[in-house]
Write a structure and sequence with these properties.
- With about 120 residues, the protein is mainly β.
- It is about 0% helix and about 60% strand.
- The strands form two sheets. Strands 2, 4, 5, 6, 9, 10 and 11 form a seven-stranded mixed beta sheet that branches. Strands 1-3-8-7 form a four-stranded antiparallel beta sheet, with no helix packed on it.
- It is elongated and about 50 Å long.
- The chain starts with a strand and ends with a strand.
Length: about 120
Amino acid sequence: QVQLVESGGGLVQAGGSLRLSCVASGSIFVITAMGWYRQAPGKQRELVATVTSGVSTNYADSVKGRFTISRVNGKNTVYLQMSSLKPEDTAVYYCNAYHLGPDLKMYDFWGQGTQVTVSS
């Protein structure tokens, strides 16, 4: 099992910045990718950004140019730097790890989520 612990959420005014952190621990074999997803009230969970172990990144169109994902492989840590925040960024943000287990099967692990609220 892999445990993910997020931190860094909170309340911020529109135009402000926040930095989310996520640390993976437990029985880690190979984490091939880590990422951030979010879920706003009444909406489905959506991808925000992902980063592979080779530091290839992918962003949702709605956050391109405003959010930056980064990863420290040796520490199994991923960050999400969020700038120019908008009220529509308000959501619970979840950390995700795509993990290759010793059985050579891929598993998805999720954190408990951290609330980000952007006031107008």
